[in-house]
Amino acid sequence: MKKRVIIDTDPGLDDAIAILFALGSGHFDVLGVTTIAGNIGLDRTTTNAGGLLTFMGRGDIPVVRGTDIPLTRELQDLVAMVHGMDGLKGIELPEPAKAPLDGAPDWIARMLAESEPGSIDILALGPLTNIAHVVTEHPEVIERIGEIIVMGGTIHAPGNSGPSSEFNFASDPEAASVVIGSPVKVTIIPLDVTRLVRADIAYVAALPDTPHGRLARELLGVYLHNGRESRPLHDPCVMLAAIDPSIFKIENMKLDIDLGDDPDAGRLLVDRRGKPVDVALGVDTERALALLRTGFV
């Protein structure tokens, strides 16, 4: 039975791989793709999401624009060094087949209200601002969410935004705090495991010779950071955890979010007064990459 999901995303090279996998693997019924500013600005993330759906022949799936500003802070600088100014390092996608809808938080709330309780999971690949708006503005639908699986944070590994903070959570610490503190079941996939999942050049070359397999090879090719292996496949790990959580070593921890103004704003705090959250702290990298490959057959 396919998992019914909403993908909240800011594509982004690794987001693009995650979306292609979700659409090609046969494991997901993608109800919609909601967009957020993060890796790049909202206009570009929205165009990239629409282009990926059009490439996969899934113009029936709506793209819904979300917010372009954090809950209370200024938007961080673009991550152009990794993803390029267009988010895809110059790789061209078809023009979106349909114009995007507007108002991602309201759209998510409406989808939840019209569905069986617990039947929709949210796969969050970027800053959590859209989801935080749902939590704060539509509290009547929150407990209808099955699970939120989030790429974000770090427990023991160094940060990629501040010394101990990760980019998605640092982009909107207040939103991360709202989502993690909500009554919804939340699973966090942090840098501790995503940094261990990388595709080497042989893996990339051996991806299936399908249209989306070839696009994945192209995306991963520009995501190679030393000519031998990719940067971490952060966002695809969310999709893998949704299908087969046994790939990951998951522990329940009580967590809070640092809401300060220093460079580590957004870092995860292990705190006995915090909310119990499932956190992936280990991963079977070989199994993860093997499962990822199946999405491109």
From TrEMBL:
Q: Record's PANTHER family?
A: INOSINE-URIDINE PREFERRING NUCLEOSIDE HYDROLASE (PTHR12304), URIDINE NUCLEOSIDASE (PTHR12304:SF4)
Stretches assigned to the Inosine/uridine-preferring nucleoside hydrolase domain: 5-288
Q: Name one GO cellular component term.
A: cytosol
What is this protein called in UniProt? Inosine/uridine-preferring nucleoside hydrolase domain-containing protein
> What InterPro entries does the entry give?
I/U_nuclsd_hydro_CS (IPR015910), Inosine/uridine_hydrolase_dom (IPR001910), IUNH (IPR023186), Ribo_hydro-like (IPR036452)
User: Where in the sequence is the signal peptide annotated?
Assistant: none
* TM regions (residue ranges): none
> Which BP terms in the Gene Ontology apply to this protein?
purine nucleoside catabolic process
Keywords from the named record: Glycosidase, Hydrolase
Extract one GO molecular function annotation from the record: uridine nucleosidase activity
Originating species: Devosia riboflavina
Q: Which SUPFAM superfamilies match?
A: Nucleoside hydrolase
